[in-house]
Specification:
Number of helices: 11
Oligomer: single chain
Number of domains: 1
Order of helices and strands: HHHHHHHHHHH
Shape: globular
Radius of gyration: 19 Å
Largest sheet: none
Strand content: under 5%
Amino acid sequence: MNRVLTLASFNVSQIVAERAGLFLSWALFALQFGIFGSLMSHLVQSSKVQDYFFFYGVGLMVITVFDTGSFVGRRFVERAHEGELPYYLSLPISRRGFLESQAIYGVVATLLRAGPPLIGVLAFTGRLNLLGAFFALISLTTLGLGISGIMISFSFIAFKSIDIYNAIIAGLSALLVRFSTVFYPLSFIPSFYSPIAVFSPLTYGSDLTRWVLGFDPNLLLNPILAAVVVTAIALGTLSLSAGIVDKIIEGVKAA
């Protein structure tokens, strides 16, 4: 366990060292929430979605978590092509321990990037509640682990071509964000593509986070179903990633 924590702390220290990047991400979030979110809340009819400003803020946090999880997953693959991953795999630590260190790294990265925006949104909208914020962070970090696992699970494509991998991940990212309930309730999505939104993990992560923060449950999915799906995706993709590390990722050639 000490080796796992040591490796995880090394990866986390790289994020903390880039303070400018963290502050910039928080500043961009604040600008998008304060300006674009304010404009959007005036365009959406309040009679249909009460407090859309808050609804939008949670969706923006989910996108932040998605971007963080995607970065963790892509960075894992990039290390293989940069020649770093073989070094990490040669350390006196099991493959399981290595993945555990990556999971801890992903959790801390999510907390650092999404934690302050979460507190800011709750304080600005007058919904600050420590218990709700705590469970919201659990929901968001679990979603982040699932996203990281998805990106790592697709790393078998990088075994053939890193360019194809990046193209597929970019397309997948666009689909997962746009065909979800990040910015609008499922009941409001047009029927010709609402079934697609049911398959997006961001749909369940968004609705679960909004539910624990006290948003109108009539506009959300069943919270138990959402919690089960988010947890299952995290556990399933991380388990799949473990198999990939053992059988595929070590064979990726450095660029």
